[in-house]
Amino acid sequence: MIERHEMAGSGNLMTRRRAAFVAAGLALTAAPAAWLVYKNRSAGIFREACLDHGKYLNAESQIPSSNPTVIESWFRSQTDYAVRIPSFESAELLGARLCFLKQRKAALVFYRKRGRTVSLFQMDASGINLRSLNHEVIDGHSIWRGSFAGYGLAAFEDRSVVYVLVSDLRESELLEMASAAQSQGF
């Protein structure tokens, strides 16, 4: 009877060890899978920004204005974060609109540079992984870059807001604009 009891105890120990190994294996595969989903969801938001840019090449604004103060004021009642309007060398401010990227509210500000529309999306940074893009350091500023649907983008984060510039300008011009925006205190 003692031998049977000891044999049953060692069987329970083996069962517990097997269960621990299975749980550890699941944890090791679940963490990377969750990270990939998080990264892909962010890439989807950036892809959606490029697609949205393509829809508004004529800069159709809800608030057509070249005055940054007017646009920032309009967004105060539209978003839960402070929308900031940077000024860019040789780029004209055209206006703004509210949009949604993958059901995420975003402020969209339009500029025109060298005859091309530049879209500046601003959205709450929670749940967005900039690491789904390629990283650059320009003039000491961390900028993330990528391209989707034939448009380039340059992105950065400041004060829990993600800023995404999208256009068909040269990548170097978008990176320069993103660096300039950060230099203005963004």
Structural account:
This protein is α+β, with helices and mostly antiparallel strands and 186 residues long. The chain has one domain: Protein Transport Mog1p, Chain A, CATH 3.40.1000. Strands 1-2-3-4-8-7-6-5 form an eight-stranded antiparallel sheet. The protein contains three helices and eight strands; from the N terminus they run αβαβββββββα.
Kindly summarize this structure in a few lines.
With 186 residues, the chain is an alpha+beta fold. It contains three helices and eight strands, in the order αβαβββββββα. It has one domain: Protein Transport Mog1p, Chain A (3-Layer(aba) Sandwich), CATH 3.40.1000.
Radius of gyration: 24 Å
Cα-to-Cα separation, first versus last residue: 76 Å
Number of domains: 1
Number of helices: 3
Average of per-residue pLDDT values: 85
Biggest sheet architecture: 8 strands, antiparallel
**CATH structural fold name:** Protein Transport Mog1p, Chain A
Q: What is the CATH architecture term?
A: 3-Layer(aba) Sandwich
Q: Which bin fits the share of residues in helices?
A: 40-55%
Briefly, what CATH class? Alpha Beta
Spans of 5+ residues with little confidence (pLDDT < 50)? 33-40
Anisotropy-based shape? elongated
Strand order of the largest sheet: 1-2-3-4-8-7-6-5
Beta-strand proportion: 25-35%
SSE sequence, one letter per element: HEHEEEEEEEH
Structural class: alpha+beta
What is the tally of beta strands? 8
